[in-house]
Amino acid sequence: MAMKIFNTDKISTGVMLTLGSEALSALLLWAVLAILGEPMAGHIRLMAVCFVAPILLLRFYAKKKGNPAVTKSIIVTLFLSFVVFMFVVIKSGELTL
Questions:
Q1: Is the alpha carbon torsion for 60, 73, 94, 39 positive or negative?
Q2: Is 53 helix (H, G, I), strand (E, B) or coil?
Q3: Of 74, 81, 12, nearest to 50 (Cα)?
Q4: Angle (CA) 36 42 47, round 5°
Q5: Which one, out of 17, 39, 72, 82, has a CA that is 20 to 30 A from the CA of 49?
Q6: For 40-62, what is each residue's pLDDT tens digit?
């Protein structure tokens, strides 16, 4: 039943996949930084790695699956989360314009 969700062409599937993959990437990065004893606040720019998995998902759904609703929702969710990420990075002072 859980795998059936990934085969549906719904907007909610794309949003769930994008946010889930970003969250798993962030959790993995947090675990690695915790093992190394580094504070997460000092390495906010490293969170850009979390966008790799959704980009690969976007490529998979656009090329292999051919689900237009999922592809569009991944694009929109990825863009919105990237805008929020850039806002946080600029406000934290790690990136100056």
A1: negative
A2: helix
A3: 81
A4: 85
A5: 72
A6: 777 888 889 999 999 999 999 88
